[in-house]
Design a protein that fits this description.
Elements (H helix, E strand, L loop, with lengths): L3 H27 L27 E5 L2 E5 L4 E6 L9 E6 L5 E3 L10 E6 L5 E5 L3 E5 L4 E4 L8 E7 L5 E7 L7 E8 L2 E5 L12 E7 L5 E8 L9 E8 L6 E3 L7 E5 L4 E9 L8 E8 L5 E3 L6 E9 L5 E7 L4 E6 L6 E4 L12 E8 L4 E8 L10 E8 L8 E4 L2 E4 L6 E10 L7 E8 L17 E6 L10 E9 L8 E12 L2 E2 L3 E7 L10 E4 L2 E4 L9 E9 L7 E9 L8 E2 L4 E6 L5 E8 L9 E8 L6 E4 L1 E7 L3
Parallel strand pairs: 29-36, 30-37, 38-46, 39-47
Antiparallel strand pairs: 1-28, 2-3, 3-4, 4-5, 6-7, 7-8, 8-9, 10-11, 11-12, 12-13, 14-15, 15-16, 16-17, 18-19, 19-20, 20-21, 22-23, 23-24, 24-25, 26-27, 27-28, 29-31, 31-34, 32-33, 32-35, 35-37, 38-40, 40-44, 41-43, 41-45, 42-44, 45-47
């Protein structure tokens, strides 16, 4: 397993080598090294089964649509912020730190709203009502991309990692399908052209760009009309790559019905090809491919048993491929493929948002160079239990060989008291192990039900918010935090009461465990079932004469209201006042723990008083109780010790 430090080292190493790799790639192409042709069979079996190791567990990123990912682990998407998708908001999120920035509200219009890409610098690209836009979450700058003269709409499809080149379509009006355009950013300004060099003349094959790398190589497909009797038989698509060096498109050799999904900066491509269709064309059966345009190597990455369509939507600069696999019975799984081992591994979402394993469907969108993968999953309305449509966005970390930590909240019991002040019930929120990326969860305090229910505002102070675990300098989070709820003391005999603190929307590097903590308010107003409570007494003692050569020992009583059934304890702290420690009195420690065995109700704390010759008046110090055991309370928390002057 790679630690957070290992991942940062991997990212740093890749950043330093990226320029050299791009230079090498361009040199190969300029020397005639671009080689594409007929696909070759792989040396290993075509039926690659899932790796026997446990698949990487997923972590929830919340209610996001259209996830895009960059190599820094930053994600872009759209959210409704719980308002039913009207309006929608672009979102920037950093998986490693948990940072989340919400963009401007965008009215949901017929032209559609979607996320197209996120650049390496964190700029978010998308489409709003047939207008391509770019949003900088750091500066909050939001701008629509320019349009050619005479055009009113655009659809942004592809953006490179550097965020300075984008492809899409522009149209003169909503009813027109438009034509392809290219946007280029230089010195902070965008320009647009419909005369891009990768476009083909009218009357030839149609072009559909799917991805572009930072060297300017474009992959997608070329479309040909074949004159067949049906739409299925009358159209042929061929996976292809366009070279900025030659200015030409080249067929990848995967045949009719193929397309290229993505290309990395080394010229490695993820693609799929059509194989056959059952009678009636109800299901397409295809193969997924790894293609290296420098060497001409074609590798069939295989499939899981029962899978008919493999869509390899993303490839990173390590040659790892991630995508979505569709089975003939409607099951949909994510996958990733490792070029070193040749293994396929299933990716499934595991979260409370998708509790039914039978109805779980997982779609993968992207994989980055650090081994992070993003996608979404939902359960359908046709689930056996009739559950409503629910879905969530997820990420997987290929470097995590162990299951993600589990976030849980515990129960609390607290004696009500009658002081009129807040007594805080501290609910422990714990991770089963340190997380390597930020973990956040929303919490809310819920009133109890029925005669034993504690009411917000009357018995406790209502509270809601977000609890956050953030990685420290060692790359790991802490494993425990507390949610403190104010319990309102009173003198009314009302019996024990309960309320709950509930966690929701567990995001980041953890999965939810026990998400409901129960708080029990123990009534101590004429209630024989109240917890045993500690008290500390007052003591007065004469100072003594130094000529006698010894100190006097006083004993401060610490008592229990009734015997406890188990061993319990309380902390005792000595607080100087007019009498000072080591001058007027001495004791082994300023803070100590007093423990009561079952059936014990009285203990003493021994303190030595130091005599002197000085006529200084009476002096005092305090003895305070705190941090009682969970099954005990504190009734009288402070006692006074008075040292009478006898000089």
């Amino acid at each position: 397993m790679h630690s957070g430090r290992d991942l940062r080292r991997l990212q740093s190493t890749w950043a330093r080598s990226r320029a050299a790799l791009l230079t090498t790639f361009l040199l190969l192409v300029s020397l005639g090294g671009l080689t594409v042709g007929v696909a070759s069979e792989p040396a290993s079996s075509l039926e690659v089964v899932a790796s026997p190791e446990p698949h990487p567990l997923s972590a929830d990123l919340g209610r996001l649509e259209g996830l895009k990912l960059n190599s820094a682990g930053q994600v872009a998407g759209m959210t409704d912020e719980g308002n039913g998708w009207e309006p929608v908001y672009p979102v920037f999120m950093d998986i490693r730190t948990g940072e989340r920035i919400i963009g401007p509200p965008l009215e949901r219009l017929p032209g559609g709203t979607a996320t197209s890409a996120i650049s390496e610098s964190g700029d978010v690209f998308g489409v709003h009502d047939q207008r391509g836009f770019v949003w900088n979450p750091r500066t909050a700058e939001f701008a629509y991309l320019p349009l050619p003269l005479g055009y009113s709409g655009s659809n942004l499809w592809v953006v490179n990692d550097a965020g300075d080149k984008a492809f899409g379509k522009v149209s003169p009006d909503p009813s027109n399908s438009g034509e392809f355009a290219e946007w280029t950013r230089a010195d902070g300004s965008w320009t647009v052209t419909i005369d891009a060099p990768w476009k083909l003349p009218a009357g030839g094959p149609s072009v559909a760009p799917m991805a572009v790398n930072d060297a300017g190589f474009i992959v997608g497909y070329l479309g040909y009309a074949t004159g067949g009797p049906t739409a299925f038989e009358g159209w042929c698509t061929k996976a292809a790559v366009w070279s900025p060096v030659t200015g030409e498109w080249s067929d990848l050799g995967l045949g009719c019905g193929s397309l290229a999904w993505d290309i990395n900066d080394l010229g490695q491509v993820s693609a799929e090809s059509f194989v056959s269709a059952p009678a009636g064309g109800a299901y397409e059966v295809n193969k997924a491919w790894f293609v290296d345009i420098n060497t001409g190597v074609h590798r069939d990455i295989g499939r899981f048993p029962g899978i008919v369509v493999m869509s390899p939507t993303s490839i990173n600069n390590l040659g790892q491929i991630a995508g979505t696999a569709f089975s003939i019975d409607g099951r949909i799984d994510g996958f990733y493929w490792d070029p070193t081992t040749g293994k396929l591994t299933k990716l499934k979402a595991g979260n409370s948002l998708v509790p039914s394993a039978k109805a779980r469907q997982t779609y993968i969108t992207e994989i980055n160079d650090s081994g992070l993968i993003v996608g979404k999953a939902w359960r359908d309305t046709w689930a056996e239990d009739g559950a409503p449509l629910e879905w969530g966005a997820y990420f997987w970390d290929l470097n995590e060989a162990q299951p993600l930590p589990v976030l849980s909240i515990g129960d609390v019991e607290i004696v009500e008291g009658d002081s009129g002040r807040c007594r805080y019930a501290s609910f422990p929120v714990t991770l089963s192990s340190p997380a390597h990326s930020a973990v956040t969860a929303k919490f809310s305090v819920i009133s109890g039900q029925g005669a034993t229910g504690a009411a917000a505002g009357t018995d406790f102070t209502s509270l809601s918010g977000t609890i956050r675990f953030t990685p420290r300098s060692n790359g790991e989070t802490a494993t425990q935090q507390k949610i403190n709820i104010c319990i309102k003391s009173d003198s009314v005999a009302e019996g024990d009461q309960e309320f709950t603190v509930e966690l929701a929307d567990v995001f980041g590097g953890a999965v939810p465990g026990s998400i409901i903590g129960t708080g029990t308010i123990i009534d101590d107003d004429d209630n024989p079932s109240a917890l045993p409570s500690f008290s500390v007494g007052d003591v007065t003692v004469e100072e003594g004469d130094l000529s006698l050569g010894k100190s006097r020992v006083l004993r401060v009583p610490v008592t229990l209201s009734r015997p406890a059934a188990t061993r319990i304890s309380v902390e005792v702290a000595i607080v100087s006042s007019s009498a000072e420690a080591l001058v007027d009195f001495t004791l082994p420690r300023i803070t100590m723990v007093v423990t009561f065995e079952p059936n014990q109700v009285s203990k003493f704390v021994s303190i030595a008083v130091l005599p002197d010759f000085f006529a200084e008046g009476d002096e005092s110090f305090l003895v305070r109780l705190s941090n009682a055991s969970a099954v005990a309370a504190i009734d009288r928390e402070q006692g006074a010790v008075t040292i009478q002057n006898d000089d």
